[in-house]
Write a structure and sequence with these properties.
It is a single chain. The protein has a single domain, classed as Ribonuclease Z/Hydroxyacylglutathione hydrolase-like (Metallo-beta-lactamase, Chain A). The chain is 23% helix and 32% strand. It has 5 helices and 17 strands. The strands form 4 sheets. A 7-stranded mixed beta sheet has the order 1-2-3-4-5-6-7. It has a 6-stranded mixed beta sheet with strand order 8-9-10-11-16-17, with no helix packed on it. Strand 2 and strand 3 form a beta hairpin. Helix 4 packs antiparallel against helix 5. The chain is globular, with a radius of gyration of 17 Å.
Length: 216
């Protein structure tokens, strides 16, 4: 951590009222940023230093979309005396066990009055999104793509391995039941500010059409 802090620092800024973004610069690892909303840290970054802790102020719980963002979650939890909640399907990817980690099961988990965790799977068996204040915090379980009207779903992004059609049908069915408009992906610029649910459903339909040979 000290070595990382020599040449890196965290950029911390409000991305909408009540929602704080935390990302490390210069870019580290895959360059994701975390989000902090109403005392819950969504996803995680590796660097944690005194200026970050001072600016953040309070974290009650940490929820993470999938194992690629586990990073320094235990360090963050210990610094802020916070609980970590992870889906049990991904428990085998935890490399640093801690009494602060609580595994949840099933399809939905209410994390206080303002947050609901929803297992979508796909990218990882326990792949999770978070509903908060009319927004979907999606990590890259539902990937916001450069054309902000569309989204993508993959088993492996670096290896460009798609998910099978049956998995997309299942994910689409779950998304259909959720209430959200805005979507915050895992990077600063991966944000859809309106009509996000319709975009996710439309993207799932296009994905299924492509797999069946239905795209010209």
């Amino acid at each position: 951590m000290k070595e990382l802090a020599r040449e890196h620092e965290n950029r911390i800024e409000e991305v909408e009222p009540g929602l704080l973004g935390i990302g490390t610069e210069p870019s580290f690892a895959i360059g994701q940023r975390a989000l902090l909303a109403d005392g819950v840290l969504w996803d995680c970054v590796t660097l944690l230093d005194d200026p970050t802790a001072t600016r953040v102020g309070r974290i009650d719980a940490i929820a993470i979309s999938h194992p690629h963002y586990y990073s320094a979650m235990v360090e963050w939890a210990e610094r802020f005396d916070a609980q970590i909640v992870l889906h049990e399907s991904d428990c085998g990817h935890v490399m640093r066990p801690s009494e602060r980690i609580e595994f949840w099961s099933g399809e939905r988990y209410r994390l206080g009055p303002a947050h609901e965790l929803v297992r979508l799977g796909g990218h990882f068996p326990g792949g999770t999104v978070c509903l908060w204040n009319g927004a979907l915090l999606s990590g890259d379980i539902v990937q916001v793509v450069p054309d902000r009207g569309w989204f993508s779903f993959m088993y492996s992004y670096p290896n460009l391995i798609p998910l099978p059609a049956a998995e997309i049908v299942r994910i689409r069915g779950i998304v259909q039941t959720l209430d959200f408009d805005r979507v915050y992906g895992a990077w600063w610029d991966r944000v859809v500010v309106e009509d996000g649910k319709a975009g996710v459903l439309r993207s799932a339909d296009r994905y299924l059409a492509a797999l069946s040979g239905g795209l010209a």
